[in-house]
Amino acid sequence: MRNVYKKVLPLALLCWWPALVTADQAAPDIEYLLTTLGQSDCTFIRNGKEHSATDAESHLRMKYERGRKYVDSADQFIDRLASNSSWSGKPYYIQCPGEDQQQTSAWLTQRLAQYSAGK
Description:
This protein is α+β, with helices and mostly antiparallel strands. The chain has one domain. It contains 4 helices and 4 strands; from the N terminus they run H-E-E-H-H-E-E-H. Strands 2-1-3-4 form a 4-stranded antiparallel sheet. Strand 1 (43-46) and strand 2 form a beta hairpin.
């Protein structure tokens, strides 16, 4: 039985390794998005209620901590966790000074593109 563990454990680690590496590579991009949102002067609209940018960052950070296993990239973070309410299914919106209200997914995607272009 011991020999089985010696053979299976390394194989199991090899199977999980790509997912772990991808998640670690996505973390800086996601952290950038969360911090940028929190430092913005924008209003976050969730389920029809307005929230501050710092509250928005806190909320999405909590969703990311709970749902980290479902995302392998910043794009997946936006699509799967940061675009709409998991409770009501309603999209999140963001209202920034001097700009039209837009879906949070579009705002985050734009910030991610700018960040990626600057790398």
